[in-house]
Structures are given as structure tokens and as C-alpha cells.
Amino acid sequence: MTTIVKRLIVNADDFGYTKDINKGIIYAHKNGIVKNTTVLTDREAFEDAVFLSKENPGLKTGLHIDLDEFLEIKRPGGIITGFKIKPTAQQIMDKINIQLDKFLNAGLKLSHIDSHHHAHLLPEVLPIVMQKAKELGVPVRFCPGFYKDTETIKKIKCMLNSESIKYPHFINGWYWGNIDEKYDTAELMVHPEFNDPWRESETANCCNPNLIQYLKEQNIEIISFEEI
Questions:
Q1: Cβ neighbours around 14 below 10 Å, total
Q2: Which residues are registered as beta bridge partners of 221?
Q3: With CB atoms 3.0 to 4.6 Å apart as the test, which of 34, 72, 104, 152 could cross-link to 147 if both were Cys?
């Protein structure tokens, strides 16, 4: 019997952003290692994502919270630099609830919660997301690289642990070596798409037969957020 050493969630962000992104994610699911994706409910290809999700029930879906209307974003790179207009806690909660309701009313099942540009990790947003995750019993993405100091990272981990909210180890960026980081369960964030050079390379990586074989040889099991 093969002993599973590690479990890896390969999660594709931005499902619902554009049809080209949707196409890349579905291709990487059918032909590669993507088993989880997170959905943007307020972008142009949301209805297409819902249709494709129902055609591919093995692809598990989380909510990709989108707070861009409130945020200053440095591009390229998608780094949050501040607020355009700082929202109240109620405005943040209302925005999240509207997106979550749209997600659930479309017939999608929630596997976990994360966000566009990691906005859910902002101190003004995280307590609200934690409350929602605890109510719904789902994991969240925790990206330590979002913060600038180890004390904040420790504090956030303590907050999540105290509320019994699950969060896998986060692998930041894509290269083969990082799947050998120390972890029991990890999330690898990927961005498959067609018609964009960087995202096309992500699609190709997710479907690389040598990588798929390597994962098997290393006893790394591909799972979804629902399985942690």
C-alpha cells in the first residue's frame, strides 16, 4: 500500500473573471492537477463559470472575495497599497454577504474562502471573514507573505487556531521546488488561462506529465479544500 506523505491542494484563482480564464482552469482540471478553484461572482464570466462548474462536479469551488472597488492596487503584481475610500465594517460585511449569496444561489457548494489580491487578510477584513468561515465551517487561505513581520503572522495564526478555522500551509508562487516544502497539507495557488503568456505557462505547468509523475513518485496526494 502506498503511504501518502503529503497532501496538496492545487487551487486556481479567478474562475469567473473571463471566459479565457475559465477555459484555462477547466483545461487544467481535466488534463492536470487542479482540483479546486475560487470564484469571482461579479466579473463578466461568472455565469459561464457556474455552467462549467456544474459540468465538472469534480472541480470544487470556493469564494474569491472581491473588494477591489475599495482598494488601491499596484499593477503589475496586484499588490494592495491602501484604500481608495475606507469602508466601514458593515460595508465590508454587506459586500461579502452579497457575493456569498450570489455564489450559493447559483447552486455552487462552498469549499473555502479566499480573496482577490489577498484582501481578506487586511486587518479591517479578516475578523469578518473569520466570522463567516466559522459560521459556514470552511477553511480559509492564509498567506504569511502578505504580512511584513513574524509577530503579525504568529498573531493571525493564533486567531485562526483559537476559532478552530482550518488553513493549509500556503505555497507562494509556482516552481517545482516549492512542492517539496515542509508541510502535511498545503495549498498551491495557480492562475491558468489561455491567451495570456504568464497564465498560459501556469496552465502548462499544471498539466505537465513529468510533474504529475513526480507527485506520484513523492507520494503527494492531490486533494480539494473539502478534504482537509
A1: 24
A2: 7
A3: 152
